[in-house]
């Protein structure tokens, strides 16, 4: 018991670990305390002065973010004095804010808007001209800063100090002339820029990629895992299902792996999911000409090719971009049922798998290397060393190759070059969600695959931790299949074929 | 009437700043005595003396010293010589009279809290005082009063002099620490308090120049002698800076509990001919203004002035004559705090700007009489809401002026 304290929060008994603040306790107890500068992933600044609470016996209101919960403490967030402090706290934040919500990307997910509805709803007393400050400041390849919208909560400054440790941002000048900025003309160029957009509770930092693209209330969110590297950050993918268009990726809190953050590369992993980059339907090369065909036809043709060549002349070339569930279905069908034994990994020839940027990004840019290895260990009966085996695959001169292609384009720039090595093989079936870079001589069929945001399942990250793709969007292209679905469809065709043969 | 003088005892002594003069009058004897005593003995003595911080808050000095963890390996003593409260010019007077008194007080205080390193933080505008202080430090090192093995003991006190860059907020103790650390002068969030985690994250005591300069006298004469002066809760003497249209403005050392009217009308010679008293700010720019009726029997001690709704603060008594427009006074005050707000806490950053802007509206002839009440309301909600007291310092005088002179302010808005 000595490790916890129990105190009263709005008549409710709350027990939390010793050392927790009232703010942390309130979050756990789901009691809303309005705040701007406090962020669970950053140090306590205590500057917005918004999270005022009443503590019985205290001379004045206290800020919840820097108030340690102590045994028997009696805290209220709903006294008239507290409510008045919240209203005025918000008024102070808003008097110099431009209130340009109609053109602000943050509108709809803005702390100022949310708290105005929650604790504000006053008529502003401000009748004087507002303080004017620099707008649309270009701060980096992905960042635009509006210093008028800024409420100087210092979250971004602390992020740069504590997370990237670059200390790239500072608050310059003082009083109501204070502005956020970099030193001199410097730009922020690290791989974690967009976290600044995330930590910013208002619309001061906006993302160049997302700016003016979409109102956030039209977006749907689905919880998934970033496929950009082997860390496996938990993310939320934001898309408009009515337009079947993906707009952005945000990190989702996961204290065991990515905390509150993700890298900018990871945010680019949705680019290939939109329709213009996708293989829309199955295709086959018939008489030297590429033609759109029903998926069933392409799969049936593959099935026949395997039957003709024999399982021993068939090879599987597998990238580490698919889920554990997909590998299971894939190997179960091809290896256990059809008897294929030639299984090869497909990945970058040269990559520094051990490299790590000290924050989140790892040198192994495949999300499921561990999952693929585990699956291959099962079918091959031995542990395979991690390397690109396409050359070995080709050297075995298989007649049929089924290739599970890498999904994320920027982590597999070698994709097209590698494909060229398959030119001499009589039947090559590419299972891919990508359209670009697959136009290579010698490919027989193309099966459209779902992207990571369009399927559920799990990856195993660099340390073997289970990373669950919890929710799936409907695919941006109607005919895309997960590997599981493709295998099921192929098995079903095969059954029909066999039955037909028996008749 | 003569008073015992502690801080101004070198007044009228020629060449008072020189070490030789200071030594001739018993200089460094108190430090020599104190260094044979234990830390606890000194802290107890200073606690018993009732000495309270002279920077404005009046926190008991001995108690503050006792907060330093006994087991701490590195402790710092900082002297707050960043005298910036408008109307205050007492610390510079100590440096003008006897910088060695401050050094001696710092040696004793450093020993009491276990600090081997001490800093004086002086505002850059004190051009001469900086030079005098530097000369005194050099003399003290030369004579072996600073450095290692002081007075044959194993006590070490090194003293450095740091010059600020002109920000009022660096006179706030944690703002001063930030500045000394080489950072932007911004107060730090408390807790932790400096006595636990201050300069460079180490236990740190920050005392005002006047507080530290009073310590040698207390060591020499004892706690009872100090308590014999002043009131029960505000013992000792205090420097009062009288400014405004009086015949003899200046610094006066008087026992605490001294009548304010006597200070103004007798010691400072009363109002200049043709001027009548309109109001008094008793403790620096941040202290609420008092009306003549409120100071009739008012005495200059922490409790009495607090009871009257103002504060003793730094002891800066600003006399306001009958022909001073209060809107103008308010404008000067809010502009000062607007200019000096560090900007980290929202109510202060936005509030000081808002106050200044509303007052600016009077000049622009866009203000309305309702703005007087608005100023009051803004001030009310700036108070007690921030990390440091600058927001309160702007709010308190604004509240007092807008309440006590509401009619006059409204008239000046209407232009009559």
What would your notes on this structure say?
The complex is a heterodimer of chains A (503) and B (416). Chain A has 503 residues and is an alpha+beta fold. Chain A folds into 3 domains: 4-94, Roll (Ubiquitin-like (UB roll)), CATH 3.10.20.740; 99-109 and 127-214, 2-Layer Sandwich (Alpha-Beta Plaits); 278-502, 3-Layer(aba) Sandwich (Rossmann fold), CATH 3.40.50. In chain A, 24% of the residues lie in helices and 20% in strands. Chain A has 12 helices and 22 strands. Chain A has helices spanning 22-28, 80-94, 111-120, 155-162, 194-199, 264-267, 295-309, 324-337, 369-380, 390-395, 415-420, 483-502, and strands at residues 4-9, 12-17, 52-55, 62-63, 74-76, 137-140, 143-145, 169-172, 179-182, 205-207, 220-225, 234-240, 245-251, 283-286, 289-292, 314-319, 342-346, 400-404, 427-432, 445-448, 457-460, 466-469. In chain A, the strands form 6 sheets. Chain A has a 7-stranded mixed beta sheet. In chain A, helix 7 (295-309) packs across helix 12 (483-502) and helix 8 packs parallel to helix 12. With 416 residues, chain B is an alpha/beta fold. Chain B has 3 domains: 19-227, Rossmann fold, CATH 3.40.50.11540; 237-321, Roll (Ubiquitin-like (UB roll)), CATH 3.10.20.600; 326-414, Up-down Bundle (de novo design (two linked rop proteins)). Chain B has helices at 19-24, 29-34, 39-49, 61-66, 91-97, 99-113, 127-142, 173-180, 209-227, 260-267, 292-295, 302-307, 326-340, 346-363, 370-382, 390-404, 406-414; strands at residues 76-81, 117-122, 158-163, 204-208, 237-243, 250-255, 258-259, 277-281, 299-300, 316-321. In chain B, the strands form 3 sheets. A 4-stranded parallel beta sheet of chain B has the order 3-2-1-4, with helices on both faces. In chain B, strands 6-5-10-8 form a 4-stranded mixed beta sheet, covered by helices on one side. In chain B, helix 15 packs antiparallel against helix 16 (390-404). At the A-B interface, helix 2 of A face helix 13, helix 14 and helix 15 of B.
């Amino acid at each position: 018991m000595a490790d916890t304290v129990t105190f009263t929060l709005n008549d409710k008994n709350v027990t939390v670990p010793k050392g927790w603040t009232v703010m942390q306790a309130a979050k756990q107890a789901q009691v809303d305390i309005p705040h701007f500068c406090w962020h669970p992933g950053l140090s306590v600044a205590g500057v917005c002065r918004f999270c005022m609470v009443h503590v019985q016996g205290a001379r004045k209101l206290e800020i919840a973010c820097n108030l340690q919960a102590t045994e028997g403490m009696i805290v209220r967030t709903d006294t008239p004095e507290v409510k008045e402090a919240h209203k005025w706290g918000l008024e102070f934040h808003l008097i110099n804010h431009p209130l340009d919500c109609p053109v602000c990307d943050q509108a709809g997910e803005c702390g100022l808007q949310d708290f105005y509805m929650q604790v504000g709803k006053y008529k502003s007393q401000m009748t004087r001209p507002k303080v004017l400050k620099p707008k649309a400041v270009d701060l980096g390849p992905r960042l635009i800063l509006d210093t008028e919208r800024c409420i100087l909560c210092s979250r971004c400054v602390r992020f740069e100090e504590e997370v990237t440790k670059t200390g790239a941002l500072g608050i310059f000048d003082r009083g109501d002339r204070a502005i956020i900025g970099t030193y001199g003309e410097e730009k922020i160029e690290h791989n974690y820029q967009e976290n600044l957009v995330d930590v910013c509770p208002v619309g001061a930092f906006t993302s160049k990629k997302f700016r003016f693209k979409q109102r956030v209330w039209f977006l749907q969110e689905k919880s998934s895992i970033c496929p950009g590297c082997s860390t496996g950050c938990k993310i939320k993918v934001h898309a408009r299902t009515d337009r079947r268009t993906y707009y952005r990726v945000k990190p989702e809190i996961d204290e065991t792996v990515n905390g509150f953050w993700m890298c900018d590369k990871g945010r680019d992993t949705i680019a290939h999911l939109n329709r213009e980059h996708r293989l829309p339907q199955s295709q086959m090369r018939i008489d030297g000409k590429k033609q759109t065909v029903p998926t069933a036809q392409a799969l049936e043709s593959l099935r026949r090719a395997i039957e003709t060549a024999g399982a021993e002349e068939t090879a599987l070339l597998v990238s580490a971009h698919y889920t554990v569930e997909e590998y299971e279905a894939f190997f179960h069908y091809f290896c256990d049922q059809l008897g294929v034994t030639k299984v090869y990994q497909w990945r970058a020839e040269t990559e520094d798998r051990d490299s790590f940027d000290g924050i989140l990004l790892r040198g192994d840019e495949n999300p499921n290397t561990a999952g693929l290895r585990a699956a291959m260990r099962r079918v091959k009966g031995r542990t395979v060393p991690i390397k690109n085996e396409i050359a070995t695959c080709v050297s075995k001169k298989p007649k049929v190759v089924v290739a599970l292609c890498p999904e994320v384009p920027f982590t597999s720039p070698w994709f097209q070059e590698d494909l060229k090595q398959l030119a001499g093989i009589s039947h090559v079936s590419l299972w891919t969600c990508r359209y670009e870079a697959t136009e290579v001589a010698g490919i027989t069929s193309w099966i459209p695959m779902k992207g990571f945001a369009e399927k559920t399942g799990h990856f195993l990250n660099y340390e073997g931790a289970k990373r669950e793709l919890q929710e799936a969007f409907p695919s941006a292209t109607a005919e895309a299949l997960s590997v599981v679905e493709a295998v099921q469809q192929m098995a079903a065709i095969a059954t029909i074929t066999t039955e037909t043969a028996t008749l | 009437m003569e008073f015992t003088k502690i801080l101004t005892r070198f007044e009228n002594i020629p060449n008072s700043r020189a070490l030789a003069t200071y030594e001739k009058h018993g200089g460094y004897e108190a430090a020599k005595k104190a260094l044979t005593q234990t830390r606890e003995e000194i802290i107890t003595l200073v606690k018993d003396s009732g000495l309270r911080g002279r920077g404005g808050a009046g926190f008991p000095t001995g108690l503050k010293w006792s907060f330093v963890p006994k087991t701490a390996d590195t402790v710092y003593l900082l002297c707050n010589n960043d005298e910036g409260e408008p109307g205050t010019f007492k610390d510079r007077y100590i440096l003008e009279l006897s910088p060695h008194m401050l050094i001696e007080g710092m040696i004793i205080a450093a020993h009491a809290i276990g600090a081997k390193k001490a800093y004086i933080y002086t505002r850059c505008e004190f051009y001469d005082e900086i030079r005098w202080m530097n000369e005194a430090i050099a003399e003290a090192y030369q004579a072996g009063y600073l450095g290692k093995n002081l007075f044959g003991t194993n006590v070490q006190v090194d003293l450095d002099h740091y010059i600020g860059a002109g920000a009022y907020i660096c006179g706030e103790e944690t703002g001063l620490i930030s500045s000394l650390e080489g950072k932007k002068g911004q107060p730090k969030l408390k807790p932790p308090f400096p006595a636990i985690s201050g300069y460079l994250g180490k236990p740190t005591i920050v005392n005002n120049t006047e507080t530290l300069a009073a310590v040698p006298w207390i060591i020499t004469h004892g706690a009872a002698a100090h308590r014999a002066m002043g009131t029960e809760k505000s013992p000792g003497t205090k420097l009062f800076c009288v400014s405004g249209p009086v015949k003899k403005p200046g610094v006066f050392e008087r026992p605490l509990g001294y009548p304010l009217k006597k200070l103004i009308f007798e010691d400072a010679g009363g109002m200049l001919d043709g001027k009548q008293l309109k109001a008094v700010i008793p403790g620096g720019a941040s202290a609420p203004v008092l009306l003549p009726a409120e100071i009739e029997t008012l005495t200059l001690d922490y409790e009495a002035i607090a009871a009257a709704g103002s504060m003793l603060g730094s002891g800066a008594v600003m006399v306001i004559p009958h022909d001073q427009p209060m809107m103008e006074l308010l404008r000067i005050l809010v502009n000062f705090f607007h200019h000096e707000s560090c900007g980290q806490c929202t109510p202060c950053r936005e509030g000081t700007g808002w106050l200044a802007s509303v007052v600016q509206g009077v000049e622009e002839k866009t203000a309305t009489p309702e703005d007087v009440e608005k100023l009051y309301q803004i001030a009310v909600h700036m108070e007690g809401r921030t990390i440091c007291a600058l927001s309160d310092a702007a709010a308190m005088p604004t509240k007092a002026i807008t309440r006590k002179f509401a009619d006059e302010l409204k008239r000046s808005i209407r232009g009559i």
